[in-house]
Structures are given as structure tokens and as C-alpha cells.
Amino acid sequence: MKIGMIGLGKMGANMTKRLMRRKHEVVVFNKTRGPIDELAKKGAIPAKSLEDLVRKLPRRKVIWLMVPSGKPVDQNINGLKSLLKKNDIIIDGGNSEWNDSIKRGRALNAKGVQFIDCGVSGGIWGLKEGYCLMYGGEKAACDYVEPIFKTLAPRDGYLYCGRPGAGHFVKMVHNGIEYGMLQSYAEGFAVMANSKFDIDMRAVSKVWQYGSVIRSWLLELAERVFKADPKLESLEPYVWDSGEGRWTVEAAIDSNVPAPIITGSLIARLQSRDTNSFSMRAIAALRNQFGGHAVRKK
Hey, how many other C-beta atoms are within 10 angstroms of the C-beta on 73? Predict the structure, then answer.
């Protein structure tokens, strides 16, 4: 297929590369020129503006937004609305709040433009391993772009979740669970780090990957973290929260669902900004490993 990609940060650029490696044509646009030129060298079709990007797409246009949630999404949608025609498709692949996705879907549908909200997980490893995709929207539109989903995801790694908003809702819960998993691992490492024993964290992270009921990809990343910095002394224990944990807690409260682990992990992140916690340094390091998220160095 031929697709437009707007937003060429860590995720957008790597997704573009993965698509091109599997012979899709990608027209690329970004608010700064550097990433456009870099991808053009690898075979992408550069666009000078939104208008230029739309012109370079086929009759039924498919445009993927990989920009930060909130105003950047609305700004791009508003810029595209007048350029697109009936049955053209906009995919929002960022971490947008699911209620916003419902509103955007309704507004675009009123103009005849199809909207797909697609949660994307995979971080900086997605180029090699593939991206887990959770998407919502009109089923016919989602089926039309399935070749794109199939290319970006590993085998069995993409799922139609339901009507508009469902994709970002499922991704929000996914990230809420991630908060809890990171917190649990980090607290366990902190208990060991503060014990009477001289425990090799890297060795523990490695052995837990074999046969343990808590084995996971996060433990592989933990092994990398502790190899590079055994006591995490180079990091500040400051952990950002990008929104999805808060939204998951809000959704749980609205639905009268108790979610103490996710809620507690969110509060711990807020507390991290005033403490010197080993567990918070562990979470910061792991988030940097799987998603390239920023850390504060000492």
C-alpha cells in the first residue's frame, strides 16, 4: 500500500522503515526537516507540507498520525480535514485519550472521513520485533488498511477492538498494567538492593528468565540495565508519567472497578519526584530501555 506518515520521532521513523522494508510506499512529513531528509535517503517520499503529502497519495488516501497526544493531533486533523474526501482514512497511532478519539471519530465521520484509533506498543524495539497494535474504528476501514497492520505487527500482534475509541481504550489499560508490572519488579529489586546480602542484580534478572513464573521481556531489559549500571548510580529517581496510568485509574473509578495496584504505581511515580528511591531509578532505567523514554542523569 501507499500511506502517508506524519510525525517522524522514535516511533514514527522506525514504523516508516519497517513499512518500507516490506515494500510499502511511505510519504513522510514532519514539523522539522531533518527526519524527512533522513528517511528520504532510505526510500521514503518526502513531503513539504500537509497539502503536498495529500497530493502524493492515491485516490483513497490513508494517513497515519504519529504525533504527541492532545493539540498536535487536533492541529493535524484540522489541517487535513479540508484536503481529504469521502472514505479517506486517518489513523491516530499516538497515545491519545480514548474519549478524545471518540469525539474525533464522530467529527470526521460527519465529513465522510474514516477515523481509526490505534494503540501502538513496541517502543524503540518495534523496528526489529514488530509493534503490538490495538485499533478501533469502522470495521470496513480497518479491514482496508489491514496490510499495514499486518506489516507493522509480529504474527498475531494486531487486534480489532471495536468501534472508535476502543483501540486507545485497550492501549490505555495496557499501559496501566505496565505501570503495575514495572512497580512490582522495581520494588523487588529495591528489597534486594537494601538487604544484608551482596546480591548480583544482573545475575538475578538473568536467572529469572529461565523457568520462573515471573519471567518476561522486562527482565531481559533489567539484565541490560544492571550490566551497564549495577547500582543505578547514574540516574535520578525521577519517573515521568505520560498520562495513560492516570486515565486508567480514572476509568476504573468511573466504572467502580477497584484497581489498587495501578493506582498505587501511579502515586509512586508522583512520589518519585521528591525521593531518592532505588525502585524509582529501576523504573526510570527500564522505561528508557523499552521505550527510549527520557531519564534524568546525575
Answer: 22
DSSP three-state, residue 183:
helix
Q: Which of 59, 78, 66 is nearest to 29 (CA)?
A: 66
**Collapsing DSSP states into helix, strand and coil, what is residue 239?**
coil
Share of the chain above pLDDT 90, in %: 86
Q: Which of 178, 206, 220, 223 is catalytic?
A: 178
Cα–Cα dist 234/122, whole Å: 25
Q: Which of 82, 59, 60, 64 is nearest to 27 (CA)?
A: 64
Of 56, 171, 223, 244, which one is the catalytic site residue?
171
Contact (Cβ atoms closer than 8 angstroms) between residue 102 and residue 130: no
| CA pair distance 104, 77, nearest whole angstrom | 9
Confidence grade of residue 153 (pLDDT, cut at 50, 70, 90):
very high
What is the DSSP secondary-structure string of 146-160?
Answer: HHHHHHHS-TT-EEE
* DSSP bridge pairs for 118: 135
Can 178 be counted among the known catalytic residues?
A: yes
Cα 219 from Cα 204, distance rounded (Å): 9
- Radius of gyration for the alpha carbons in the chain, expressed in angstroms and rounded: 20
| pTM recorded for the entire structure | 0.88
List 5's β-bridge partners, or say none.
28, 64
Q: Compute the distance between CA of residue 292 and CA of residue 62 in angstroms, rounded to an integer.
A: 28
DSSP 8-state secondary structure symbol assigned to residue 297: B
What is the Cα–Cα distance from 285 to 295, expressed in whole angstroms? 7
